[in-house]
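Box 3.1 A note on notation
Throughout this textbook, protein chains are presented in two layers. The first layer is the amino acid sequence; the second is a token string describing backbone geometry. Keep the layers aligned when reading.
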Amino acid sequence: MRITKNLVSNILFGIVILLMIVPTSRAWILRQLSFSPGIEKIENRVQLQSYDWALKGLNTEDLDFNQEKGKVVIVNFWATWCTPCVAEMPSIQELYADYGDKVDFILVTSDAKQKVLPFLEKHKFTLPIYNQITQAPKEFYTETIPKSFLLDKKGNIVVNSGRADWNAKKIRRVIDKLLKE
């Protein structure tokens, strides 16, 4: 049998399709293809109009989002069944490990506690996870997940991103700058 470019291409294509079918492989592939989130230009930044948002802690205390005024905050909407969400979680966990005492991390899911806690344990994630009690501020409205927002101390949305590498040097530099402001 003669090996041609066409045969090699077909085999590689088949392997990629097979990897995409296996859930754990999909998350790994997506992690390899992740980029740092884009930073909003200062003139395009949207400011939260309200901090009225109640959250039920699944592995942490309940939260009144009004307590976040004047802080640097990362809000992430995700789900355990969402492969792109799972793909970006390790980068969020790494960022949390280094910035969890300086930046407030609020990861919001509609999944039940009985599903979330085993997921966190399986992946060794220590991120604070919440369910919404009341509706999120309108500036966080999204029809897709994952969806993340980085807020500065004035409540401006500095990052509004889908799946991303949250542990990128670029995002760390932005957070360091926001913490100094």
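Helices lie at 5-21, 23-32, 83-99, 113-123, 169-180. The first strand starts at residue 54 and ends at 57.
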